[in-house]
Amino acid sequence: MSAFQELFAATPVESERAGAGPIRTPGRRKTPVAAAAAIPSSTAATPTSSIQCAIRNDQIHSLVQQLFFRHESPPVRHVAFAPIEASTETANLCLEVARVLVEEGKYDVGLIDAHSDRLLPQSESLQTQLRIPSPSHPQASWPIGPRLWMVPRRSWLTNPEGQRAGQRVTEQDLSRLRELTSEFDFSILWCAPVSWLTASIGQACDGLVLVLTANKTRRLVAAQVKDQLDKAQVLLLGTVLAERRFPVPQGLYRSL
């Protein structure tokens, strides 16, 4: 078992960080983590970038299989992804997960901007971060690939750019979000960093995947977040360790 998979089974140690090394004080896990993956950075420009891409692709395929195709009841169809660290980039992760689902060739997949911060400017929306152009006359959603749809924040969040900070997500907003997810066989929800607002989004879908950041997210903080999600009755479906670096042996460098 790797360090990130042991994260929620161990007694947290504040001085240790996710991905920093093995945990040596295992405890009893209250709720099993259903899925786990270590995702290399997608932006690292190194001589081993092709190797990193291959590892990243394999990990994302494995994550999709663990989350959506475990043949368990009830099935998991609609999943929110939320980081602990505000600086952790998760837009590309959500897009890659959605694309792997589309590769099955028989599912309609929605990629939903579920960022609940009403003051987040349009320049930081999901489609902008992914450099996906909007149609000239945007509808509630639009296709960005075969059987893959972009669903903008304005399609479910009431007046997303016109209300004050801290404005609550209303039950009407969440009801509309549930309706949108039901239009797809699977949906991937891109969420803001974990907060009580994010917990509300997690309650509106099948559960939440927590995105940790290698060598940055403290184990104690992650354990506290898990406890808060449990109290909010948000199902934690798994964890992703983002921005992990995989050291390459010197002999492999020479063969590149």
Task: Describe the overall structure.
This protein is an alpha/beta fold and 256 residues long. The chain has a domain at 75-238: P-loop containing nucleotide triphosphate hydrolases (Rossmann fold, 3-Layer(aba) Sandwich), CATH 3.40.50. 30% of the residues lie in helices and 18% in strands. It contains eight helices and eight strands; from the N terminus they run αβαβαβαββαβαβαβα. The protein has an eight-stranded mixed beta sheet with strand order 1-8-7-2-6-3-5-4, sandwiched between helices. A hairpin with a 2-residue loop joins strand 4 and strand 5. It starts with a helix and ends with a helix.
Give a topology summary.
Elements: H1 3-6, E1 35-40, H2 49-68, E2 78-83, H3 91-102, E3 109-113, H4 126-129, E4 142-145, E5 148-151, H5 171-181, E6 186-190, H6 196-203, E7 207-213, H7 219-231, E8 236-244, H8 250-255
Parallel strand pairs: 1-8, 2-6, 2-7, 3-5, 3-6, 7-8
Antiparallel strand pairs: 4-5
Helix pairs in contact: 2-3
